[in-house]
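Interim report to the steering committee. The following record documents the input for L-Fucosyltransferase (371 residues).
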Amino acid sequence: MVLLKKAAFSSKIYYSVGILFVIVISIVVTTRIQKFNPVRYPFPIHSKNQSVLTQSISQQINITCIVYVVNSGGRLGNHMFMVASAYGLARLHSCHLYFTPAITDEMKLIFIFDLSHFLISTTTFNSIMHNLPKQMTKESRSITCQYIPELMRPNAISSGRLFELQGYWQSYLHFHTYRDELQNRLFVARRLVIERVSKFFINIYRRKFKFKPHFSLDNHQLFKNQLAQSKWITWIGIHVRRADFLLTNYSSSDEYLLSSIEYYKKRYSNAHFIVASDDKRYCRNLFRHRPNIFVTPVSFSNGDDLIALSLCQHSIVTGGTFGWWTGYLASGEVIHDKAYPSGCERDEYYYPSWFIIPGQIRAHNNSNYTV
């Protein structure tokens, strides 16, 4: 009987120690989770406590100003201009960034889109907007391809400002200072996109040279460098926007495309061309007798086409923002058809200086411009 009582007493002690141990571990784990993960508020915020909570959120992540985009017209190229312009202004003025889930989801289908140090969540943004702290004011600016130099001055977007971009911000001057960051952090292809595009390039090497190169696909820039180092090929990207431009007479002529190709063939004896277009049947017919010109597959998405052209060393582009970005991200020489009306007040707001190549290549049958 005595032994049984001792055993029962010992069991109670072990049980109590076990419970205490579990409590201590729970406290430690909870503390670590709170330390390394920001507080999120997935539940509705009651109006009674909203002002206090909003102030707490902004103070917690040290929000002084926000540059944001909630509406963006057009398609991928226009959206990239809006994202890049917002990023440039946020970086310049040390502000946080906000994009709607629709915009970030579109970007992340193609790009790594690393904005971890700048982007705030939809929950945080909505909390601030729905009950604006007294020290913060909102401002919206809607433009169409203009350059706003006063926004580049110190404190143009000062502490306490919520600055919204609306319209079509298509001047590269708002973000060009941070071009390296755009190319190496934001508009960097996801691995899945690189894998699809790499198969297209590898098939060309197989067909042309009976050789299968082994590319590293872990890094966008590394893959691009490996393509550029090939002794056999200098890659030239060609973007042809045609379908909707036929109705507005903005489509580039065959003469413009063929003359631009001849320019690069004379400049680079090993020039080979990658063509992406919204009218691939037209392109295949136009270039059907040219063995050094390859049209991207119909199965390619817009993102695949953009990345394929951005991996080239030099570019030929027609009108529109999609083609503009292929040339800008490729970072080489760019021949651009200036017959396209950019809508900017001055051409230099839209066309970087390296977009116009001196020579006698006529930009368009009905244009006085030559490039």
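The chain has two domains: 50-185, 189-355. The committee is asked to note this result when reviewing the revised timeline.
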